[in-house]
Design brief:
There is one protein chain. The protein is an alpha/beta fold and about 400 residues long. It has 2 domains: about 5-240 and about 380-400, von Willebrand factor, type A domain (Rossmann fold); about 245-375, no CATH class. The chain has helices spanning about 70-90, 130-140, 150-160, 185-195, 210-215, 215-225, 245-255, 265-285, 285-295, 310-315, 320, 335-375, 385-400, and strands spanning about 5, 15-25, 35-45, 60-65, 100-110, 120-125, 170-175, 200-205, 225-230. The strands form 2 sheets. It has a 7-stranded mixed β-sheet with strand order 1-9-8-7-4-5-6, with helices on both faces. Strands 2-3 form a two-stranded antiparallel sheet. Strand 2 (about 15-25) and strand 3 (about 35-45) form a beta hairpin. Helix 4 (about 185-195) packs parallel to helix 6 (about 215-225), helix 7 (about 245-255) runs antiparallel to helix 12 and helix 10 (about 310-315) crosses helix 12 (about 335-375). The protein is globular. The chain starts with a strand and ends in a 10-residue tail after the last helix. Residues about 1-55 have low confidence and may be disordered.
Length: about 400
């Protein structure tokens, strides 16, 4: 959905002062209930962007998808282009560092949801568990209803634990086809509140340009310093077959053998099974989607801290000594601490070797794709969801001080 029709004002950044707190309960990946206290800040504008502190920069993105009856095409585009979108963050760098990416997912406009809550549901809170995000996206179904854009934007602002990193990037992407003005929460209030907190709102209208403008989708983006797009939600995503795809997909499966999932026995099995399940979902969406997912898995943005021991050990050198034996994968339980460290490092080396092969092939694949896009004149016609999101991400990350390279499919 990603060909911009209007580009608005540059992104500003803000320093915030806490005024009060709200508590939000959500279900974690393992089904446990978690309560997060979210600060509701009063914005105080800074004259200049605060410098990046040198830690891995924060990137928080909330995706708000219309799941009313007419949006089956939109959901299919999201499924097929999820990993292409994530790739943009995987390639972004600030002072040579890959960002810590967290993504949240909301649905709105679905009559299966309570009318008293505005037909809105937070499906996934801001999380770095990209497999959980993929699982939830592929589980979405549609049912007719009213779309309350102002209310779902306001919910995303309030309920999510947005980063306070001054050198980061925070954005909402909202997609739908009904007027932006519906519902009890004024879209103007919601969008102004978002940008006061440094959260850019990008609007994606599923339909023609004049209808989107008349329905105030463009105005919402302007108020929150984002971009306004029109897409054809029913347009099939063009899948370009690349000679590297089959090898990359096979290497992705080998990459899975290097993960040492930790936690309760139920959690370990769930993490392992879901990783394979999301590989399968991506493949069902197309070989291009599966190859894009593999490319993400081969980079730093796909990290499983506190879930996988290889990633966890890279972040905390003492993590193995802090874990109880029952939290470890079976292969490590009867080993001494030194043996465990050696085994994890062995898996880290194996993973790095596979990732290097995938990255080499992914670079060759990008060169092939670039040539094919020119040959097929793929840029003709109305945009898809992925086109719109990628376009906005590229521009807005650059404005936030990230070095980026383009990828679309």
């Amino acid at each position: 959905m990603f060909r911009p029709m209007t580009f608005c004002m540059p992104v500003r950044f803000y320093m915030v002062v806490v005024t009060f707190f709200t508590a939000t309960t959500f279900a974690a990946a393992d089904g446990a209930k978690v309560v997060i206290t979210v600060e509701r800040p009063k914005p105080v504008e800074q004259e200049a962007t605060a410098p990046f502190s040198g830690q891995r920069p924060a990137v928080d993105v909330a995706i708000l998808l219309d799941t009313s009856n007419s949006m089956n095409g939109l959901i299919n585009q999201a499924k097929s282009q999820l990993w292409t979108i994530v790739q943009q963050f995987a390639k972004a760098k600030k002072k040579g560092l890959t960002p810590v990416l967290r993504v949240a997912l909301f649905e709105h406009g679905n009559t299966r949801l309570p009318a008293s809550e505005g037909y809105i549901r937070q499906i996934v809170p801001l999380t770095d568990d990209l497999d959980k995000l993929s699982e939830s996206l592929f589980a979405l179904t549609t049912s007719g209803g009213d779309e309350y854009c102002g209310q779902v934007i306001d919910e995303a602002i309030t309920r999510l634990d947005w980063s306070k990193e001054p050198g980061g990037y925070k954005a909402i992407f909202i997609a739908g086809n009904e007027p932006f003005t519906q519902g009890k929460v004024d879209y103007r209030t919601a969008c102004k509140r978002a940008i006061e907190l440094g959260i850019v709102v990008n609007t994606i209208h599923c339909g023609n340009n004049s209808t989107g403008i008349a329905g105030k989708w463009q105005h919402g983006a302007q108020l929150a310093e984002g971009e306004f797009f029109n897409i054809d939600q029913d347009r099939a995503v063009v899948i370009i077959k690349c000679p590297q795809d089959e090898i990359i997909i096979k290497l992705s499966a080998k990459l899975n053998t290097t993960y040492l999932w930790c936690g309760t026995e139920k959690q370990r099995h769930r993490y392992a099974e879901n990783q394979v399940a999301q590989d399968s979902n991506a493949l069902q969406a197309g070989r291009g989607a599966a190859a894009a997912r593999a490319s993400v898995k081969a980079g730093e943005v796909y990290r499983n801290l506190d879930r996988d021991l290889v990633d966890s050990l890279s972040g905390d050198g003492e993590v193995l000594g802090k874990m109880k034996a029952e939290q470890l994968p079976d292969v490590l339980k009867d080993m001494s601490l030194d043996e465990r460290k050696a085994y994890v490092k062995k898996m880290a080396t194996k993973r790095a070797e596979i990732q290097k092969k995938i990255n080499t092939l992914a670079a060759e694949r990008e060169t092939f794709l670039a040539k094919e896009r020119v040959r097929l004149a793929e840029d003709s016609g109305q945009a898809t969801l992925g086109d719109a999101v990628v376009s906005a991400i590229q521009k807005q990350l650059a404005k936030s001080g990230f070095a980026t390279t383009a990828t679309t499919e």
